[in-house]
Amino acid sequence: GAKNDQYDSDEDQFFHFSEVSFPMNSVLMPRSIFFVSHKSPFVSALQQTNSAAASPAQQIAELAGERFHEKYPVGQLQLQICTRRKVLADKTAVTEAVYNLLINGYEAAAAAGRTPQVRLSVRAERMWTVFEVKDNGNGIPPSLRGKIFEPFYTSKSKNTNWGMGLFYVRRIVRKHFGHLKAVSEEGKGSTFLLMLPRYGDEEGGKHHSSRQEAKS
């Protein structure tokens, strides 16, 4: 039967999904980055850049969704917001990263001959704020999973895509002391997890909203 595999953009490690419930335990990050304190080395490093600021994760997700609909006006996008957390980030760059994942998911499903169904969810997971993008494409063949984060790799037409999507996303995530992971099940699509370190306290407690977006 089809296998559901989880792999890490940094380590190119592959796991059978049933053996790993969530990628948190396999993240290789300096312990200092886990500090929630606004005085942590993570915060200091990002605050040295002019473009880093505290931004609501929900706002980044909504901006990425708006960009998605600019490219695919009638595309179906389900947006789920399950946290009010903020992230310390270059909002433009992280929005671009999430947008790239949305476009990749939509185009993967379309290339598989299916009506694309893309879901973007934002949630809090311990010391991480997670942007999850799930599609209903064919999944990623095992032979290609070690290549998808390489520069210039693409399964799309070279005339319209230069293969910088996932490589570019990973660079943005790394600059934010984050992590990029993926889960793929052959024949059933892929899920990408863009994980940024938690910043500050969650405001307003837990939050959940879900809506189906499609522009007419």
Describe this structure in words.
- This protein is α+β, with helices and mostly antiparallel strands.
- Helix content is 25%, strand content 27%.
- It contains four helices and ten strands.
- The strands form two sheets. Strands 2-1-8-9-7-6-4-10 form an eight-stranded mixed beta sheet.
- The radius of gyration is 17 Å and the shape is globular.
Radius of gyration over C-alpha positions, nearest whole angstrom: 17 Å
Largest sheet: number of strands, sense, barrel closure: 8 strands, mixed
Number of DSSP strand runs: 10
Helix proportion:
25-40%
Q: How far apart are the first and last residues' alpha carbons, in Å?
A: 39 Å
Tell me the structural class.
alpha+beta
Strand order of the largest sheet: 2-1-8-9-7-6-4-10
Q: Describe the global form.
A: globular
The helix-strand sequence is EEHEHEEHEEHEEE
Contiguous runs where pLDDT drops below 50 for at least 5 residues: 10-38, 157-163
Average pLDDT confidence is: 76
Treating each run of at least 4 consecutive H or I residues as one helix, how many helices? 4
Strand content: 25-35%
Features:
globular, 216 residues, single chain, two-stranded antiparallel ribbon, alpha+beta
